[in-house]
Amino acid sequence: MKIIARELLEMVKRNVTIDWTERESVQAKLRLIVKKILRKYGYPPDMQEKATLTVLEQAKLLELDDYYS
What we know:
By secondary structure, this protein is mainly alpha-helical.
């Protein structure tokens, strides 16, 4: 699980852009990246959607933290 978390964090940080929360194309790209990583590590398919949404919410928080830092 730690490996998945690290890889997800790295990919999200590389792909977060200013105001990405307003841009559907960037959100869609991040969703695809997250799902690809989850599949790569055999994450249960029935839990992937919830995990993807959680990662996207965390990415939004990361972007806000960077904005206010």
